[in-house]
Design a protein that fits this description.
Order of helices and strands: HEEEEHEHEHEEEEH
Number of strands: 10
Helix content: 25-40%
Number of helices: 5
Strand content: 15-25%
Radius of gyration: 19 Å
Distance between the termini: 44 Å
Strand order of the largest sheet: 1-10-9-4-5-6-2-3
Largest sheet: 8 strands, mixed
Length: 191
């Protein structure tokens, strides 16, 4: 009986140490029960879901256009990631989801998002749709009052989600991480 128990434990340990298992630089959330899909409108007025990007790796970031630091840094980093992917950059879709639908109109998004790369897409929803997608993706956001009614900022989750070419959420990309580890992770998702 003891020998059988030891054998089962040993097999369990060996399975857990699978050298063929995919290792990522960022947080592997493969199989997560959240961040599965969305339904929002792009800055051209077209309704979008994750299925629209099947066959591409999708990186989805939640932010707002008047963000002074995290959002432009993330978008700049993603433009560099796309560049470093070379020809595989055509298989990457970066999506910016606004957490500030009151100020981030379709027109504002259409100017801001493609400024980082012409293929990047901005999505928006109503206040209720924004709250629902933020909850589903476990994204924190909160309005922080400014000196005037319209000069507020938004505290928000700073990481991004990466989906594989089949539309499955796979990674949480940490904010301000180096570009090269993100490129390496996305290359693995493209295989």
């Amino acid at each position: 009986m003891l020998a059988r128990l030891l054998f089962v434990v040993l097999i369990g340990l060996l399975v857990g140490c699978d050298p063929g298992a995919e290792r990522f630089n960022n947080v592997d959330i493969t199989g997560a029960s959240y961040a599965r899909d969305f339904r929002l409108t792009d800055f051209n007025g077209k309704p979008r879901t994750l299925a629209d990007f099947r066959g591409k790796v999708v990186v989805m970031f939640f932010g707002y256009t008047q963000c002074p630091d995290v959002c432009p840094t993330t978008m700049t980093d993603m433009a560099e990631v796309k560049r470093r992917l070379g020809p595989d950059g055509d298989k990457l879709q970066v999506i910016f989801v606004t957490l500030d639908p009151d100020r981030d109109t379709a027109e504002v998004l259409s100017q801001y998002v493609p400024g980082f790369d012409p293929t990047f897409l901005g999505l928006r929803g109503t206040r209720d749709e924004t709250a629902a997608i933020a909850k589903d993706f476990k994204v924190f956001y909160q309005k922080v009052p400014g000196k005037t009614e319209t000069s507020y900022t938004m505290d928000h989750t700073a990481g991004s989600y990466a989906f594989d070419t089949e539309g499955r959420v796979r990674l949480f990309l940490r904010h301000a991480g180096a570009v090269d580890p993100i490129v390496a992770d996305l290359r693995k998702l493209l295989r």
